[in-house]
Amino acid sequence: MGMIASFFRVPPKALQVLKANPDEAADLIFEMEEIEELELDIDKSWHGIYFLLSGVADLDEPADGHIGRAVLGGHELGEDYGYGPLRYFEPDEVAKIYNELKAFSPDELASRFDPKKLSDHGIYPMHKKWSEDDKEYLVENYDFLLRYYETAANNNEGMLLLIQ
Fold first, then answer.
1. What DSSP string runs through 82-94?
2. Quick one: the chain helix, strand, coil %, rounded to 5?
3. Is residue 146 part of a domain?
4. CA-wise closest residue to 11 among 161, 163, 152, 162
5. Is 137 within the bounds of a domain?
6. What is the pTM of this model?
7. Whose CB has fewer CB within 10 Å in the chain, the N or C terminal residue?
8. What would the DSSP string read from start to end of 69-117?
9. Distance CA 39, CA 68 (A)
10. Residue 15 in contact with residue 94, Cβ under 8 Å?
11. For residue 110, is it within any domain?
């Protein structure tokens, strides 16, 4: 299976419910239709996107600014689910992240793609060597993520991130 990143746009009131119930938050997102219906799954592309945006390969080393936080940031909420806890962003944080992300078009991200660098830095999934064929996979998932943040920012929504 592997580590899959899922994002959820969250209305502010629903975010408050989740924050008030941190130990149940991950279960609640799949019970609250207004959240579950808004899921974006970027599959295993999350680490590659993070690396191309931030230039940082080490997951324990935070990236500067909001740009890296788009994929691996947020406030911890609840218990560790094996690859870390559920994370959330307040609506104003989503807007700040989107304002930085929109400066990086999918074409800009594609221009940073270097399969040798991705492989040399052990960018997940590490069981494979990156090739030029993988560029479209990362760029397409980044485009989905960029549009997702845009919608959330325009709707004044918060965001959840779960890697599982």
1. SS-EEEEE-HHHH
2. 50, 15, 35
3. yes
4. 152
5. yes
6. 0.92
7. N
8. HHHH-SEEEEEE-SS-EEEEE-HHHHHHHHHHHTTS-HHHHHHT--HHH
9. 20
10. no
11. yes
Tokens of 45: 């592309």
Residue type, 71: V
**Mean pLDDT (whole number) for 111-138:** 91
Q: What percent of the chain has pLDDT over 90?
A: 66
> How far lies 38's CA from each of 10, 66, 125, 134, in Å?
8, 22, 26, 26
Inside any domain, residue 25: yes
**Residue 147's domain is classified under what CATH number?**
3.40.1760.10
Q: Which two tokens stand for residue 118?
A: 């991705």
Strand partners, 41: 6
Range of the domain at 103: 5-156
Cα–Cα distances in Å, from 26 out to 45, 143, 150?
21, 26, 24
